[in-house]
Amino acid sequence: MPNATVLQVQAGNLPQGYCPASLQDLLNNFSKVQTVTFQQSGGSTNGFLQVGTAKPSDTSNPWQQLDSLGRPVRIYVFAQGAWLSLHPLVPGFTMIWTGALPDFTIFDGGDSNALSAISGPMWEVVSSLQDNFPVGAGGAYGVGATGGEAAHTLTSAELPALKLRLPFKGTDGFLGSTDALGDPMTGYGINDDPTPKSRQLLTTEALGGGGSHNNLPPYLGVYFVRRTSRLFFAVT
Description:
By secondary structure, this protein is mainly beta. Among the domains are: 1-12 and 35-79, no CATH class; 87-132 and 223-235, no CATH class; 167-201, no CATH class. The protein has one helix and 15 strands, in the order E-H-E-E-E-E-E-E-E-E-E-E-E-E-E-E. The protein has one helix at 23-32; strands at residues 5-11, 34-40, 45-46, 49-52, 63-66, 72-79, 82-86, 94-97, 123-125, 151-152, 168-170, 173-175, 213-214, 223-227, 232-235. It has a six-stranded mixed beta sheet with strand order 3-4-5-6-7-15, with no helix packed on it. Strand 3 (45-46) and strand 4 form a beta hairpin. The radius of gyration is 41 Å and the shape is elongated. The protein starts with a strand and ends with a strand. The model is unreliable at 38-46, 169-181 and 185-200 (pLDDT under 50).
């Protein structure tokens, strides 16, 4: 087997009439009479692994890829016509990216082919999180739930509850008011005298423009980047 290491294990013979005192004693003595040999037939090897910077021609044994400085990168097994290595992060794993986005067709071993278990980009931007905050799911919010607004305009129902009491002008001048506790006014045509008198109602001045207010806490813009459904690093 070229560029590979073959492990051979051969058990010796126990002495005639051997009777172990216990199962552990049997295991201990059996291990003493075994012989283990490594047969190497060329190439750079490490146990059963084929080790090197370039993919080997022998596809029957795993390959430990090295970088240009001889450091280990990852271990591949040949399957589906390519050397495959399982990505350590499961699809759906999401991380925060604070800088400019890389080219996902080549980032982390990805490519520009159609997305599958062994091809396509390894990462993608989570488009559903653009301009949105994440919120912990499982309670009031389910996974994938959306809502909220960046700016909000108060509705009538959201205004503080209040009641205005204004004096009116009768024939004898200004009459009626509220006391310090806000109790109802007394005066012509209010409580004391059920008969309306000649009076002039006062008109209040409108305030406010009815615009919306910012509904966001202080923020920092980042990218949310997610592992795609691609499972394997691949070297064809």
